[in-house]
Fold this protein.
Amino acid sequence: MSRSATTKGDLLRLGFRDPEAATVALAALGESRAPLLALLGRTADPDEALAGLVRLADVVDDRDRLLRALAEDEGTAMRLLCVLGASEALSDHLVRHPAHWHELADSRLGSTRPAAWAVREGLLLAVGADPQDRSPVATRPDAEAVDALRVEYRRVLLRLAARDLSHHLGVDDAAAELSDLAAGTLEAALAVARARVGADAGLARLGVVAMGKCGGHELNYVSDVDVIFVHGAASEDGAGDDVALRVATQLASQLIRVCSDHTGEGTIWPVDAALRPEGKAGPLVRTIASHRGYYERWAKTWEFQALLKARAVAGDLALAGEFVEMTRPMVWSAAERDGFVEDTQAMRRRVIEHIPAKEAERQLKLGEGGLRDVEFAVQLLQLVHGRADERIRPSTTLSALAELTRGGYVGREDGEALHEAYSFLRTLEHRIQLHRLRRTHVVPEDEVALRRIGRSMGYLKDPVGILDTTWQHHRREVRRLHEKLFYRPLLSAVARIPGDDARLSTEAAEERLAALGYVDPPGALRHLEALTAGVSRAAQIQRTLLPVLLGWFADAPDPDAGLFGFRRISESLGSTPWYLSTLRDEGQVAERLARLLATSRYATDLLEREPQGVRMLGGDLHPLGAEALTEEMLATSSRHEQPEAAVLSVRGVRRRELLRIAAGDLLGLTDVADVGAGLSRLTDATLEATLAVAQRAVATQRGLDAAPTRMAIVAMGRYGGFELSYGSDADVLFVHDPEPGADAQEAASYAQAVALELRRLLALPGPDPALEVDADLRPEGRQGPLVRTLDSYAAYYAKWSKVWEAQALLRADPVVGDRELLGRFAELIDPLRYPPDGISADDVLEVRRVKARVDEERLPRGADPHTHLKLGRGGLADIEWTVQLLQMRYAGAVPGLRTSRTLEALAAAREAGLVDEDDAAVLQQAWRRVSRVRNAVTLVRGKPSDELPRDIRERAAVAAVLGYPPGSSDAMVNDQLRYTRLARAVVERVFWET
Amino acid sequence: MGKQEDFVLRALEERDVRFVRLWFTDVLGFLKSVAVAPAELEGAFSEGIGFDGSAIEGFARVYEADMLAMPDPATFQILPWRGEGPATARMFCDIVMPDGSPSYADPRHVLKRTLSKAADQGFTFYTHPEIEFYLFKEQPVPGGEPVPVDRSGYFDHTAQSMGADFRREAITMLEAMGISVEFSHHEGGPGQQEIDLRYADALTTADNVMTFRTVIREVALSQDIWATFMPKPFTTHPGSGMHTHVSLFEGDRNAFFEAGAEYQLSKTGRQFIAGVLRHASEISVVTNQWVNSYKRLMFGGEAPSYICWGHNNRSAMIRVPMYKPDKGQSTRIELRTVDAACNPYLAFAVVLAAGMKGIEEGYDLPREAEDDVWALTERERKSLGIEPLPKSLSEAIAVAEHSELLAETLGEHVFDFFLRNKRAEWEEYRGQVSVFERDRMLPVV
């Protein structure tokens, strides 16, 4: 290659970041540089690889030999440059021990895995111990031996890294070799420990059991090595028990120090014995009998989970092996122990609720979709199912996953995808750690590091970009791991899926459902079976949907109800073409549906009657405006001849809208004021359309061409106040006004018939919640005529009106029917409800007296006066009466008070200075809060109630609807009591003026 | 299950424990106990022991009577007074609802909540109570005047003193239950004793106070005498208080200490005092919860009647003790209102909440009271801005009813129940015709 060929451009193309420095460095290497260039271009970091090579060449005794070897043997060059480019720490090691470059000239590296015994032998020889001895003892001076152990450890590690980086070692092989290296290191460290303890060392047998990743034969480049020590007396007579304990403890603690101490040659890794019985508080070493005593009686599920990985690795292997044999049966019967279900649930939550780590987004181990997720999930499945099935017991994560897949406990595709994801994440972790040999699980953020890591994994073009996409892809796979590992296989237990010969047994599936929080696993399985049986397309889609849904159900207050509701809806929609495809393709619809079904009986009932509503969940859930609704209802009802059919169609629209409002409320999308307004507008539209139908029907019946009178409906009470709740009746007044020249009797009879027909049509049994139309607030109450003329109202109010009627009229909202008549009705009542000078002092007293009596008498028997939502302390009635008294006294002077809505009137009162800021805020918050609770209670229970649920599960569900985290239902009650107590204090001042 | 549960289960085996008493405290501060066999305990750790909450004073709204007692394994102790043979142990419980959420009616939860709010700001709360009580020769007889076991006075050492024997045995028993005693001596009244418990975090101290009251009464019974924590059993002799030293720690550092500041008292410490002073009247109904409590507070001496603080001023409601050089960690303040018949969980909670309020809102500390407040004239006190504490339970209730601090700290349920109960107590008391009245009036009218 001529000099001109290595231009700056060439170097940049090869991946150098600093061509100037590279040119200088290349010059320093002289002749040999040329063939190296292409190889450098394939290293993780060409600049570092080249710089490292220059450093190494400067310190080796045999520079020429090195350069010649690089030039002549591509394998050697590749291994050396790959290591230099990927690991700063190993480059430093090479510079410290230049002769070690010869290690990489060993051509066997590409083909042969070092035998564990050979590694052990090398490490023992390094400290001067005899590998053939059953209890080898280090003979080199202590400091020398400790250093020699570190150097030998790194020498083997250097060879391993070279294999890993340049010979495409599988990540499981690399991890297994690292575990062998760790095992040999523990052995050599024990030899040094024996030398330290001296002659006594022979008085105890000490076995080292590896746990965690080392035990599972899947160690990282740098990580704590978890161990448990087991000891015994050297002689059989048992006389030396105390001595054996003392000696074994010394040996174990010296072993730990030999590995973790920092010397001139650095450290190896910390040895962690915290997984032993009683953790750090327990004795460092125990006998087999003592271990057995502990595990038989005291050990907890997580400890058996840990024991899954136990493996005899060093010291007295017979003793360590005995420990492993002793614990095996306990691990596999752990699932039979009391509390296993609770423990696994807690463990599952531990998988979901990640330890809040800094840099959580870039955490490979503990972050969401991290390695810990996969490991925990696999171990959990092993414990649940490994009792009956020996095949799934391997202690290595990837092997276990493969066996679980083969056994049908995990679906084949899922198993393979997870396998790939886990391998990728582990490789990534290895490459990150390899750079400085530091224990880290965080993906770095700087470009240079990401580029090096990406290139080391073979992404030579756009390393940063591809690394990131690949990483995110695998993370997504892992994130949905619960669906894949826990839920999807459940389906194979109930449905014979073609082509899938391995499947979960019924018992296994029930065990798993219970562990996931389902109260009635056999019932749940029956639903699953019904949903997925057969080879139809629907069953196929259900099989892909249900794993996700099962997870969503499990996170909601009532998983069993969620699944049952889903089954009924799926059955009634049958093979409706859009249903399953909507659920499958629009994730939002399915998630919303699952949450509604497992939370709210009200929404479930609506959905069951009107499964079509499912489709709406994908769209906007804000309440529709009155105009659009009225238009739609009028149009749909006019298409039917029969009044019953016409109103049924109106009620169909209402049912759909009720679901929209309930869903928006439950999913936290619709504010409580909008819920009330939405329900009121919906009632407006329903009455408007039904009034038209009723008028048509009566006219037809009577053979009239034109109506003899004009009709209107005035909304009253909570309906008039735009504050309807899900279960409320609609309070109304009917008013009519005969056409000029019409016979008064005939007009009255017609109007009466229309009102009756309207009520009948709305109360007919149907697939939707009936709308109860209540006219009891009319003059003279139930004794009075159902419908009056405008003039009759005028005459009545002029003569007889009581203050409570004026108060009721505050909530009057003339909305439905003849516009002009409504206007005149409003003109009629305004002077009554908004007297120019306010009501008299006597009337104020009367209002208070009536309220006092209502407080006393209206509360239902047995209701708690503190928490009754409507009539309780600081409840809705308290707040509304307070606002209404202000309206009756001051609306004449303050126009803002002339409104039927509580919150509007309250705001106007505050602006006018009738209530101070703080008091108004208290009343507003309490009113909103109580209204929300009232709505939530109806949604959860499916029927209206003005009391907090007594059933603890329902109360927990109400708390969940209100947004409280699990386990805080009493906190919800406490907050409720606080809001209402504060409101009551304001009511005392403002209403009672005490 | 964690290591502590394991420890307990193992101890049951090793010590041959036949019964475990699960203790909890009702809203008024009375100890409740339910005994379970060791075999049931494992279940109790995971699921709790169900009981009918409506049977316990102040616990349940009637219709939601089901509650669970969850033993706290950290409080496991063998009871020392059951003699030889099979042992009995006790553990304190947290009260939870059937869905696992903590009950707001549980005084222990009230304190835990308040502690965790302080912990959110980085503080741990330590208390150190000095508990006074009387020893009488016999069990109380209705209408009878109790007879003290001796006629000694403050710090008296009498040979063969009943009190000294009693204290020795009581302290031995307390130490056997892991409760360290700092100090003990004869107090001012005849038969009156004082025992000071070692500093500990407030939850432990409150548990210890409950245990202490039980141990003292058990020991008294075993010696055929009677012990009482009644705040003021005699008109003429001093009452029994529970002066409580309190301090806040931030990690390992005493947050009340500041080298070089006046009395070595940090800004945090001064604000804490200001908070307790400003809210003293509101929390009085909890720190001094009985009709009788207010009789202790009206005669001067060791019991305060006025809201003020002073340095080594024994007439002040809050005393800042003499600073000992090189003992920055022991900087603390002494609150002298609390009496020994309080509910310690609630009392510590409200004191902490009041002090924390002072810190959060940055209250300024009022002037120090340098004189004996008892010796001042009414007008002098007024001009110095020294307000009186509530003079009766009735006054205390009236102030408490409007206290947001109290409602927030106790939680709505306890706040409501507690005040209702206290109002009823006051009404009942108001209707009593007393010996005092008869003695005054029968002879003359």
